[in-house]
Write a structure and sequence with these properties.
Elements lengths: L18 E6 L6 E6 L3 E6 L4 E7 L4 E6 L5 E6 L3 E6 L7 E5 L4 E7 L4 E6 L3 E6 L4 E7 L4 E7 L2 E6 L3 E6 L8 E4 L6 E6 L5 E6 L3 E6 L7 E4 L2 E3 L5 E3 L2 E6 L6 E5 L4 E5 L4 E5 L12
Length: 284
């Protein structure tokens, strides 16, 4: 495992409150979109360390996503609003739709041109940004705690510890509906780059890899833990999972302030970044 230092860029000016979501642009990976609890959406040019645009809204933002290009963005907030933002126009926000409770997750599907929003009201909706109409409404068995889309698949992790997988071309019912392989609450979920499976992170410092093909056996492993003594170990929730689009390796970020990089195929950790400053909240 490598622990060599990696180059870091501290983007400025940073939000004044917690960052809820970050996304790289689909057509230029040096642009970064960040939503925050400070009621702002920010667009950064990473190489030049420049804030290109700041959009102020009237509610804390929980999620964001680019659209088909880096000039389109979408957001979801605690008030339930799903917003569309033209990133070529200052402070541009158009209501795309809304939920009864917080719109906690936003994903854009390049395969269908739809925007998917997952909410604490227990629903997932799809929106057509061209006509600002709702195209799909899916009732879930609990609050949406995690969501990811890739190619023609959408996977949803719920407060009931259920995982529902949809083919978004015919999303009236899930093609897979299972209990989470992890014992504790789902925190994040991410489809593989080839959409052959997905990774799940939980509050108990565990990650599980599951496959769309039910005949393939998945596995789980412990991570983001700190041994305090022979009898005591701190366990930290997994906050985020991100895959490399070409190599299939993936990174996990935890409440311990650590970022680990994993080779899922060979079941090993290949890198660990230096610890970042964060509020450390072990679950046990």
């Amino acid at each position: 495992m490598s622990t060599a230092p990696v180059e870091e860029v501290h983007l400025q000016p940073s939000p004044s409150d917690g960052i809820s979501c970050v996304r790289f642009s689909p057509d230029a990976s040096d642009w970064l979109l960040a939503s925050s609890w400070d009621k702002s959406l920010r667009l950064y040019d990473v190489p030049s360390n420049r804030l290109r645009l700041k959009v102020d809204v009237d509610h804390a933002l929980l999620a964001c996503s680019f659209g088909a290009t880096r000039t389109q963005a979408f957001s979801g907030g605690v008030g339930g609003l799903v917003g569309y933002h033209d990133l070529e126009v200052a402070n541009s926000t158009t209501k795309l739709g809304s939920h009864d409770k917080a719109a906690a997750h936003i994903r854009y599907s390049a395969a269908t041109g739809q925007v998917f929003s997952g909410s604490w009201d227990g629903t997932v909706s799809a929106w057509d940004p061209r006509s600002t109409t709702q195209t799909t409404h899916l009732k879930q068995s609990g609050k949406v705690y995690a969501m990811s889309t890739k190619e023609n698949l959408l996977v949803v992790g719920l407060s009931t510890k259920r995982i529902s997988l949809y083919d978004i071309r015919r999303a009236s019912a899930p093609i897979q509906d299972i209990d989470s392989p992890l014992k504790y609450q789902i925190r994040c979920i991410e489809l593989f780059p080839d959409a052959q499976g997905y990774a799940i992170g939980s509050t108990e410092g565990r990650v599980a890899l599951e496959y769309v093909d039910a005949t393939r056996k998945g596995y789980a492993f412990k991570c983001h833990r700190e041994k305090i003594s022979e009898s005591e170990t701190y366990v930290f929730p997994i906050n985020a999972i991100a895959f490399h689009p070409r190599f299939g390796t993936f990174a996990t970020g935890g409440c311990d302030g650590m970022i680990n990089v994993w080779d899922g195929e060979n079941k090993k950790r290949i890198n660990q970044f230096l610890q970042h400053q964060t509020a450390r909240y072990p679950t046990r």
